[in-house]
Design a protein that fits this description.
Layout (H helix, E strand, L loop, with lengths): L5 E3 L1 H31 L7 H25 L1 E3 L14 E6 L2 E8 L10 E3 L3 H6 L7 E6 L2 E10 L1
Parallel strand pairs: 1-2, 4-5
Antiparallel strand pairs: 3-4, 3-7, 6-7
Helix pairs in contact: 1-2
Length: about 150
């Protein structure tokens, strides 16, 4: 199993724990009941309901394993972090040829690029980590190189 640390905010960890609890206490028994009911209908070789329930069971069990691993390897992001350099949990204001943008550096489990929450493992996140206000950062991505100037860290 992967033992790589999972960087999470306290809120993100609570959401994962809640999802795990729901999967174990609600979804798993629901799927088990569906499988039981489908078995009652007889011939399993031509029973689409049984096949569907078994597929859902595989998904639920896989998700439970994933959540357990994420929680086990969770590292809480320090919310009182330094503002003199970029680190996980920092919100960074940058300037580029396209104007100004703001990114919050989070762990990959909480990344939502459309909301400006980028992973510390993404090309932009990796390039920004450790940099200070005023520094220029070149980000190499498949579409070409981008240059950002860090104008603020909070």
């Amino acid at each position: 199993m992967n033992n790589k640390p999972t960087y999470l905010s306290r809120d993100g960890l609570q959401k994962l724990r809640a999802e795990l609890d729901e999967m174990v206490s609600i979804k798993r028994p629901e799927v088990a009941n569906r499988i039981h009911d489908a078995k009652e209908h007889g011939d399993l070789s031509e029973n689409a309901e049984y096949e569907d329930a078994k597929n859902e069971q595989a998904f639920v069990e896989g998700r439970i394993q994933t959540l357990e691993a994420l929680i086990k390897n969770a590292t809480i992001i320090d919310e009182n972090h330094s503002t003199d350099h970029v680190q996980i949990g920092s919100t960074v204001s940058v300037e580029s040829g396209d104007g100004q943008e703001r990114f919050t550096i989070v762990g990959s489990a909480e990344a939502k690029p459309a909301e400006g929450r980028i992973s510390n493992e993404s090309p932009v996140g990796r390039a920004l980590l450790g940099k200070k206000k005023g520094e220029k950062v070149v980000v190499r991505v498949p579409a070409g190189d981008f240059t950002y100037k860090i104008v603020g860290i909070s």
